[in-house]
Amino acid sequence: MGTICSVIGHKWNNSCTCSRCGNTRDLNHSWNGCRCRICNKTRDEQHNWDHCRCTKCGKTRDEDHYFIYKPVYTEKDGAKKSMCEGTCRICGKVIVIEHDDQPAGGKCSFRCKRCNYTHEDHDFKEVPGRCAEVCSVCGEERDYMKIALDDSESFEKRRSAFMKLDAASMIPESIRTNCAEDKHILKQTKATRQQFQGGTSYTEYICVACGKTIREMDYGN
Ligand SMILES: [Zn+2]
Ligand SMILES: [Zn+2]
Ligand SMILES: [Zn+2]
Ligand SMILES: [Zn+2]
Ligand SMILES: [Zn+2]
Ligand SMILES: [Zn+2]
Ligand SMILES: [Zn+2]
User: Fold this and answer.
1) Tell me: the pLDDT tens digits for 1-30?
2) What is the residue extent of each domain of the chain?
3) Which residues pair with 187 in a beta bridge?
4) Residues, CB within 5 angstroms of ligand 7 (ion)
5) Does position 195 have pLDDT exceeding 70, yes or no?
6) Of 139, 148, 187, 198, which has the maximum CB count within 10 A?
């Protein structure tokens, strides 16, 4: 408190700030939206939202973000899956959601409206007596070797493709050799959680090529 003000009191002039010493009070602010023009105090109303952030006071909210999207790969059920990752260019929030697929040109082609990721989604059906599947929509073929080695396929599809190749003695020599030497193509298929203190849990891996199951036990502590 300035010396004069301490003797005769502040000079408020109907404002929040003393014109003599600069002292402030929580009264008679000159609000310009959420911020006082004179003392810079802020309040939680009348913000000036630019998407998720107030340009006057910097407060953020979890809505109306300004997402920029790009495709990313995530691991789901042991298979790689392409997803849409959005990063807000204002507050940095990151979300990962399914693509917003729109038909794109060819019969089985799709493009994500947000990140432009393009992919093909065929309706493959088995062809009896052949080591291949054919798309019922566009007629594209793919053989079981391709499915077996495709990281983006589910564990079940890859495993069954390998079993069909095995039945036809068509598993490549290099993969047979690796499996024989315990260098499997392992995929996580199951993970259990410890049910109680000191209980055991495990993570289970199965080789898509030969079907060998490996469990990593965790005996808790
Ligand atoms: Zn004063
Ligand atoms: Zn003020
Ligand atoms: Zn504000
Ligand atoms: Zn944001
Ligand atoms: Zn996308
Ligand atoms: Zn197709
Ligand atoms: Zn194996």
Assistant:
1) 557 898 999 999 999 999 999 999 999 999
2) 1-57, 65-119, 122-171, 181-218
3) 206
4) 179, 184, 207, 209-210, 212
5) no
6) 148
